[in-house]
Amino acid sequence: MIRIANGQGFWGDWLEAPVRLVEGGPLDYLTLDYLAEVTMSILQKQRKADPSLGYARDFPPLIARLAPSLRSKGIRVIANAGGVNPVACAREILRLAPGLKIAVVLGDDVMDKIDSLVAKGETLRNIDTGAALLSIRDRIQSANAYVGAFPMAEALKTGADIVLTGRCADAALALAPMIHEFGWKQDDWDLLAAGTTAGHIVECGAQATGGNCQFDWQTTPDFANIGFPIIEADTGGRMVITKHPGTGGRVTRATVTEQLVYEIGDPSRYLTPDVVVDFTTVHLTDDGPDRIAISGVRGTPRPELLKVSISYLYGWKCIGTLVYSAPDVLAKAQAADRMVRERLKALNLSFEKIHTEFFGINACHAHLAPPLAEPAEVQVKIGARDRDKAKLERFSREVIPLVLNGPPTATGYGEGRPAVREVVAYWPALIPRSAIQPTIEVIS
Amino acid sequence: MKLRLRDIAHARSGDKGDISNVGLIAIEPRYYPILVREVTSDRVKAHFGPLVLGSVTRYQLPNLCALNFVMEQALDGGGTISLRTDAQGKTHGAALLTMEVEVAPHELTGST
To answer: What is the CATH code for A312-424?
Structure first.
């Protein structure tokens, strides 16, 4: 049996979590997931400005902090912190923590292959909208294929202390050490499906252990010290989800089931580069306090096509806010919204989209929000989006004047004119598996 | 009798681009048939109204006493594009739980 923990559900997750996992009890592998869908484009931009950047910058100092414990306990780390520049990330780790052996998985970056793929007849259509790539071809910022667990398992074979990847399937981070330790084969579909299911459950960190769980949330123990999830995996594919003793949160059928259905499509076909998992075959059973066992998972052969995540420049957006105090908060906020729109009309400015929310009344749930008695204050939030930056720059000057020009008691305008921000959007597409050949580079 | 879904189910929601998915889970296994009968994709589409512009597809996970709703064009473009506060659909689960469903008393107690 091996223990695999996930100490980071996204770049920005709790910095102490990996430290507490390493120091709070037995562990064999620590995985860390840093890459959300649009993170790669941010990293691409950073690398363009400075060729030594383009990775999750929190990661090298974290490893430096953990290095003595990792060594003394024999814990190995698998992380996708490499972003678009994993080799530079490895060098920075070695600068801060000399003596570590790092295996880098390369090959996910397909930015330079797009033209040849298109020439070969690959459409790279957006799998959500069906739109053709041609419409964004000149605005692409990054393109990375989702690498599976087998290249990471290869990297573990080198004996590296740390396996560093760029874009990979999140659940593959946890599956890789199982493949490595148990010798699972590329067509062990049910075993790969079991490991992928466990990996999916832990990939968002504490969302498996009580974080963001709606069921009876008031009784969730000790959010401040929430324990991050640990998989106990055995060679026959039995998985237990648990956490270190004495930590906060809890592992129950409710917390695990909520995470199992999180960010999925057709549950009978959960696609990864390694296997297609049928979540309708998953059985969860109580296995003692804070322990849920997973069994019965069935898998079918991996897809022939790999998902690629393309980021592209979409346009610009700007969101301005003002706060109105009682009395008549909603009437004032609505008058402010009408006023901004009337002034924009007078300027002959139209946008791809203008969106207004009355924050505190209907921002999240729109018409589904329960009617309120008079709130003490409301924030009016007016956002605009367009391809034309100049129009947004003008829009950004149309909110603050209301403080002196409009309905009374406007305040909370913060730092003044709202920022106009570039929108980098995400374009999921499919490429043939043969388009990428992952390789391993050992750096020490 | 009418009940709020939140009395018999819990939920988690998240995003993939402009798609929001809501996993709806029965608090007790005996409530699962109520969810299957009452919470159809048509009702979910109508419940979300202007929040969800595209289609709603329902999937069943009887093994987990859960349903999964995949809602398209649900996030004003999604992720970075969206002008909504909840650009990731994180609160769509809680929004679904406000739906009213028709339940016979014996379905709650398990007796016939």
So the answer is: 3.30.70
